[in-house]
Amino acid sequence: KTYPRTGSMFGFVTYDQVHLVCEKIMLVQRDFGNRKDRKNARLKYTVDTLGVEVYKEKVEELWGSKFEAPRPFEIKDNFDHFGWITDETGKHHFTCFIENGRVEDTPELPQKTGLKKIAEYFQSRPNSQGTFRLTGNQHVLISTVSDEELPKVKELMSEYKLDNTNFSGLRLSSAACVAFPTCGLAMAESERYLPVLITKLEEDLEEY
């Protein structure tokens, strides 16, 4: 049986500990997740099987610390904000639109080659901190770009159209699971058809 489930609160952690806690959460899932039944393999089912408090205790045991009491917070949206931003340390980050999270080369968008060229550029610089990050919405951040690297990265992004965010809001916020042909649980098309559906909807929306 599968079912939707909202998240459970473990508590508060400081900024510098977030990546460590996330790692420990995944390690508990690795050790206790149900790998024998794909329908029951997701983390939410492991939390329900162990219980929230037990799962939390196992994370704390691996982490070697305790969650603080929850603090007030507000989630305003889960939309990726595309384009350039500069963080408090002066590093630059660009969120690229990757339709359905599928990095590939097409005649219109040679994104796979572009990301490879940027990776090679970062690797050619001994002290580069440049890296790629994945967002929760399946897009890619070209991240931690220094002032010195910025012109070259922008040049490569333009050449391979990685800086193209000129899409409708509908397309930018769309996402689909893989479904056919690779998912054994799929009963219909999803990822391969969604871009076609979005185009049809965009054409209809233009009329209104």
TrEMBL record:
<comment type="similarity">
    <text>Belongs to the nitrite and sulfite reductase 4Fe-4S domain family.</text>
</comment>
<dbReference type="GO" id="GO:0009337">
    <property type="term" value="C:sulfite reductase complex (NADPH)"/>
</dbReference>
<dbReference type="InterPro" id="IPR045854">
    <property type="entry name" value="NO2/SO3_Rdtase_4Fe4S_sf"/>
</dbReference>
<keyword id="KW-0004">4Fe-4S</keyword>
<dbReference type="InterPro" id="IPR036136">
    <property type="entry name" value="Nit/Sulf_reduc_fer-like_dom_sf"/>
</dbReference>
<dbReference type="Pfam" id="PF01077">
    <property type="entry name" value="NIR_SIR"/>
</dbReference>
<keyword id="KW-0560">Oxidoreductase</keyword>
<dbReference type="InterPro" id="IPR006067">
    <property type="entry name" value="NO2/SO3_Rdtase_4Fe4S_dom"/>
</dbReference>
<keyword id="KW-0411">Iron-sulfur</keyword>
<dbReference type="GO" id="GO:0016002">
    <property type="term" value="F:sulfite reductase activity"/>
</dbReference>
<dbReference type="InterPro" id="IPR045169">
    <property type="entry name" value="NO2/SO3_Rdtase_4Fe4S_prot"/>
</dbReference>
<protein>
    <submittedName>
        <fullName>Sulphite reductase</fullName>
    </submittedName>
</protein>
<dbReference type="GO" id="GO:0020037">
    <property type="term" value="F:heme binding"/>
</dbReference>
<dbReference type="InterPro" id="IPR005117">
    <property type="entry name" value="NiRdtase/SiRdtase_haem-b_fer"/>
</dbReference>
<keyword id="KW-0479">Metal-binding</keyword>
<dbReference type="GO" id="GO:0046872">
    <property type="term" value="F:metal ion binding"/>
</dbReference>
<feature type="domain" description="Nitrite/sulphite reductase 4Fe-4S">
    <location>
        <begin position="7"/>
        <end position="66"/>
    </location>
</feature>
<dbReference type="GO" id="GO:0051539">
    <property type="term" value="F:4 iron, 4 sulfur cluster binding"/>
</dbReference>
<dbReference type="Pfam" id="PF03460">
    <property type="entry name" value="NIR_SIR_ferr"/>
</dbReference>
<dbReference type="GO" id="GO:0000103">
    <property type="term" value="P:sulfate assimilation"/>
</dbReference>
<feature type="domain" description="Nitrite/Sulfite reductase ferredoxin-like">
    <location>
        <begin position="87"/>
        <end position="159"/>
    </location>
</feature>
<keyword id="KW-0408">Iron</keyword>
<dbReference type="GO" id="GO:0050311">
    <property type="term" value="F:sulfite reductase (ferredoxin) activity"/>
</dbReference>
